[in-house]
From TrEMBL, chains A, B:
GO terms for biological process: glutathione metabolic process. Its EC number is 2.5.1.18. GO terms for cellular component: cytoplasm. The keyword Coiled coil applies. Transmembrane segments: none annotated. This is glutathione transferase. It catalyses: RX + glutathione = an S-substituted glutathione + a halide anion + H(+). PANTHER family: GLUTATHIONE S-TRANSFERASE U8 (PTHR11260:SF676), GLUTATHIONE S-TRANSFERASE, GST, SUPERFAMILY, GST DOMAIN CONTAINING (PTHR11260). InterPro entries: Glutathione-S-Trfase_C-like, Glutathione-S-Trfase_C_sf, Glutathione_S-Trfase, Glutathione_S-Trfase_N, GST_C, GST_C_Tau, Omega/Tau-like, Thioredoxin-like_sf. GO terms for molecular function: glutathione transferase activity. Keywords: Coiled coil, Transferase. The keyword Transcription regulation does not apply.
Length: 217, 217
C-alpha cells in the first residue's frame, strides 16, 4: 500500500513551509489541506487538540503536530538526503540551534516587526540574531548544515525569507548586510536552494500579509 | 579512554533533575559541578552563551545545553534502557508531549504558583494539565512511557514532585486527586521509580525554596 501523506496548513505560514521543505528534500508526494484559522476544521481540532494549529502532518492516518517534531519525523521515516546529522553530538547541536531560533530569534523578530522596528525591540532581535551570525562565522559553511541544509536552516526559514517581506511591507530595516554579513549571505544561499525555492510562497503574498496585518492605516 | 562526563547544575532545579534522571537510567557516572546563578562561572557562559543557564552536560569536552536536548543526546550515546521509543511515530508523539509540558504546562504552573493560586491562573494551569490527564487515561499505563519511564515522564518531573512542595510551602492547592486522578497516580508511581527516587532533591529543600521565593512576609 502506498503511503498516504496529508499536510494541513496555510499558504503563508513559515511553520508550514518548514514541513513543505522537509517533504521536498525527501521528494515525498502529499496532499495539501488548506485550513481556515478563523473557522478551524473539525479535523484540525481532532488532530491537534492542544495547540489547534497548523502544520499537522497526517501519515497513513497518524497525525503529528509541531513543525520541528514533524521535520524530525519525516527525517526518521523517509531515507535519502538526511535533515539531521547521524553523529550524536552534531545532532544535539542541531537540535539546540533550532530551539534557539524558536525560543529566542523568532519571538524577538515578531516583536520587532509588530512594533514597526521600535529601537529597543530591534536591539533585542539583533542580540539574538548575533548568535546565529557567530555560528555561521565559526562554521564557515554555506548553510548551517554545511554544504547542504539541515534542521537549523529549515527552522530559520522565516529569517531568510519572511523578514525581507516584512521590511518591504512596513518600510523598516531589521537585518542589514553591514551588521549581519554571514546571515545575509546564508539567506541568499538558502532561498536559492532548489528544495526551498520550489515551495516558498510568492513574496508579494507575504508583503501583502504584513501590510494588512501590521501596516499603518 | 573512559568517558569524561560533567554536569553543570544546581541542586534544586527541575531541569537539571531531568538530566540526572536520564544519567541514572543509563547508569552513567559523572561529576556534578555546582553553579551559582548569581555569579555565573566563566565555564557556564562559555559553554552556553545563548541561555547562560544550567543544565549543561560536558561529554569529553563537548558541551550540550537545554535539558530535553541533553536527555535525547544521552539516549543517543549510551545504549541500555531506552528513553525514547524506536518507532518513528511513537518517538514523534513523545517529542510532542514533552514539548507540551515545556510550552504549555510548566509556564501555566509557574504562573499559578507565582500568583499564590490566583483563580484564573489555576484555571489556566488546569486546562493544560487536563491534556496530560487525558493522555494518561487513553494510554491506561503506569507511565507516559508505558511500563517504564520515557522522555515525557522525565519532562514532567516538576509536575510530579515540585508542585507538591510548592503547595505545601504556600498552603495552596493546585492538583487534586479529585480533578486529576490519573496524574496523581502517575506522580506517585514516577517519584517512587528507583532511577527517579535516587536523584530527587530532599522535599524540604524545595519547600524552603518556594517559601523564600514566593512566601508572604
Amino acid at each position: 500500500m502506498a503511503d498516504e501523506v496529508k499536510l494541513h496548513g496555510l499558504a503563508g505560514s513559515p511553520f508550514v513551509c518548514r514541513v513543505k521543505i522537509a517533504l521536498k528534500v525527501k521528494d515525498i508526494k502529499y496532499d495539501f489541506v488548506v485550513e481556515d484559522l478563523i473557522n478551524k476544521s473539525a479535523d484540525l481540532v481532532k488532530y491537534n487538540p492542544v495547540y489547534k494549529k497548523v502544520p499537522v502532518l497526517v501519515h497513513n492516518g497518524n497525525p503529528i503536530s509541531e513543525s520541528l517534531v514533524i521535520v524530525e519525523y519525516i527525517d526518521d521515516v523517509w531515507k535519502g538526503v538526511s535533515i539531521l546529522p547521524h553523529d550524536a553530538y552534531e545532532k544535539a547541536r542541531v537540535r539546540f540551534w533550532a530551539k534557539v531560533v524558536d525560543d529566542k530569534c523568532l519571538p524577538a523578530l515578531f516583536k520587532a516587526i509588530g512594533s514597526h522596528a521600535q529601537e529597543q525591540a530591534v536591539a533585542e532581535a539583533h542580540e539574538q540574531l548575533q548568535f546565529l551570525e557567530n555560528e555561521l562565522k565559526v562554521k564557515g559553511s554555506k548553510f548551517f548544515g554545511g554544504d547542504s541544509i539541515n534542521l537549523v536552516d529549515i527552522s530559520a526559514t522565516f529569517i531568510a525569507y519572511w523578514v525581507g517581506a516584512a521590511e518591504e511591507a512596513l518600510r523598516i530595516t531589521l537585518v542589514t548586510k553591514d551588521k549581519f554579513p554571514k546571515l545575509k549571505e546564508w539567506s541568499d544561499n538558502y532561498i536559492n536552494c532548489q528544495a526551498v525555492k520550489d515551495v516558498l510562497p510568492p513574496r508579494e503574498v507575504l508583503v501583502g500579509f504584513f501590510k494588512s496585518r501590521f501596516g499603518k492605516a
